[in-house]
Predict the structure.
Amino acid sequence: MRRRVLAASRTAATTGRAVNVYIAGAFESQARLRDLRDRVEALGSTVIGTWLDEEGSGTPTPQDALSYAVRDLGEVRTADLLILDTFDVNERGGREVEYGAAFAWGIPTVRVGPARNVFHQLQKEYPDWDTLLAAEWLREG
């Protein structure tokens, strides 16, 4: 897995473009993850998850939910790396679908936070965001 992450970072570096990073997390974590997005971008990557800036409260209409799902999976598909944040728990599971899609599409993934299911064992784990952001491979991108 580490080789796949490094390869994505090097490919982006040699093509002269920033690494496209998608951050998957609980909707309730938006404020915390926006601050972390800024830190990832300060390292030279581009965070492409527009859900982080989405305003909303309550349950979306079925039409809105479909629109969000299609948009988010489209953004995941263009990512060079997906970072899965598992610190906060919710019952919706959108981040798990995004992670599963990235994994199935061969997009490198890393997890920040605890393993919450058996599939999380398939990822490189970082105990916290500071450890991930200090990783040399991320700075090389």
